[in-house]
Amino acid sequence: MTEPGTIREPVRQAARALVRRECDEWRCLEWDKAGVYPREVFDHIARLGWFGIGIPPERGGSGGTAGDLLVVAEELGRGSTDLVACFSLTAAGLRVLVTDGTDAQRAELVPALMAGRARLSIAITEPDAGSDAASLATAARRDGDRYIIRGQKTFCEAAGLPDTLIQLYARTDPTAPRQDGISMFLLDPGLPGVTLRRLPAMGRNITGVYEVFLDDVAVPADRMVGAENGAWRRLGRELPLERLIISAGFVGAALQVLDDTLRHVREREQFGRPIGSFQSVAHLLVDLHTRAESIRLLVYRGGELCDAGLPHAKEASMAKIASAELYADAARSCMQLHGGYGYITEHPLTMHYADSVIAAVAGGAAQVQRDIVARELGLRPR
Ligand SMILES: Cc1cc2nc3c(=O)[nH]c(=O)nc-3n(C[C@H](O)[C@H](O)[C@H](O)COP(=O)(O)OP(=O)(O)OC[C@H]3O[C@@H](n4cnc5c(N)ncnc54)[C@H](O)[C@@H]3O)c2cc1C
Q1: Residue whose CA lies nearest to ligand 1 atom number 31
Q2: Is the torsion defined by CA of 74, 15, 72, 365 positive or negative?
């Protein structure tokens, strides 16, 4: 990992301190149970300028690298992977606006997003378009200086949070090959014709996932971001970094679960000795730590490639597969090592367990990630 020229270590220390002070896993557990979004934490993150990490200051960002962004995600993951999702939606969406937004969109939204006055969510998935997202059917029809949008989105994380704009993907050319007829709009969920429904989920209840119903919603044409019908190809450029951010969060969450469990197995005695001194327990934790440290290197390698402007889709999908499986395995094994205490919902392990179950689906299913890697290895057509 290349440290010189980055702001990585100061960011790591500051992020770790922020998580300890304001949003550790115990606090996240309470927010998750209550379905509460900790606005003050994200306001603080905005004041620190972290949403703009990796964007040059002359373009309205905070400087630093994509690798620095991964550091923040890893540390937030020690609190909850739901915090990471919420952070990533705005941080990644901000990059899109900087690169593809119009001058007016940038002037209005970059300072607002940086300051935490606005935040972003993303709506691609539909009831009939999940892994095969390019088959999305929500339609946007041009009508003078606006588009009339009709359709339904689902699993739209954070869409119901205050001051949130939804990056809505819709079909603007039904005659084009499916990837080539999709555009992206910034949707104000307060517009007439938009209805949100929060889905009762097993976990990830800090930000919440929503259905979005669009009943002939009139969206001004100047809310389209980037070229008409060009959103899918652009998304393909951005998704690898988003997958790395999510993966960094899974690694952070797994490391937190492992830290908690190391402490527990050193202190908990049975048969007259700490349970961590039993070889089967020790080896289980050694193997999980080995995987965590290896996957961590893969995540930051992906970040380095991204920062160098080199392809990183393969590393990002590999990292997403491996980090999601690690998080789920660590949460399950560490519950076992906590015995009955791990099953009590006063313990953050139960939140990690519920959140880790969905890690291999949210942000792109594991099977689909494997298909991407297979393509990169030349085993499937592009
Ligand atoms: C907590 C959470 C947050 C989310 N946040 C967002 C968000 O903010 N915005 C958004 O747009 N979406 C979001 N999603 C949606 C997410 O991206 C989808 O759930 C995911 O892409 C899978 O789609 P699906 O749920 O429809 O499952 P399906 O596509 O129906 O898949 C079901 C199963 O079939 C498997 N499968 C599908 N295709 C193949 C294949 N070709 N080969 C082998 N197996 C296959 C999948 O791997 C999976 O195991 C979120 C989902 C969750 C659960």
Answers
A1: 131
A2: positive
Looking at ligand 1, which atom is closest to the CA of residue 125? 11
Please tell me the distance from the alpha carbon of residue 281 to that of residue 359, in angstroms, as a whole number.
25
Tokens 């499937």, residue located: 380
**Are the C-beta atoms of 303 and 244 separated by less than 8 Å?**
yes
pTM: 0.96
Q: Report angle CA 55, 61, 67 to the nearest 5 degrees.
A: 40
Ligand 1 center–CA 361 separation, angstroms: 5
List 146's β-bridge partners, or say none: 143, 220
How many angstroms is it from 364 CA to the middle of ligand 1?
6
Question: Choosing from 242, 304, 346, 376, which is the catalytic residue?
Answer: 242
Q: For 230, which DSSP code? A: B
Partners of 140 in the β-ladder: 149
Q: Which of 87, 110, 96, 370 minimizes the C-alpha distance to 233?
A: 96
Tell me the per-residue pLDDT of 255-307, one tens digit each, with 9 for 90 and over: 999 999 999 999 999 999 999 999 999 999 999 999 999 999 999 999 999 99
Query: Which CATH number is correct for 122-229, 2.40.110.10, 3.75.10.10, 2.170.270.10, 1.10.600.10?
Result: 2.40.110.10
User: Among this protein's residues, is 242 annotated catalytic?
Assistant: yes
Residue 273 has φ and ψ, to the nearest 5°, of -155, 160
Give the CA diameter of the chain.
79
Please tell me the residue having the least CA distance from ligand 1 atom 45: 367
CATH of 232-376, one of 1.20.140.10, 1.10.530.10, 3.40.190.170, 1.20.1560.10: 1.20.140.10
Give, in degrees to the nearest 5, the angle at Cα 72 between 70 and 76: 115
Residue 155 Cα, ligand 1 centroid: separation in angstroms?
A: 9
pLDDT, position 381: 86
Three-state DSSP state, 70: helix
Is the pLDDT at 4 greater than 50? The verdict is no
Instruction: Please write the tens of the pLDDT for every residue from 125-163.
Output: 999 999 999 999 999 999 999 999 999 999 999 999 999
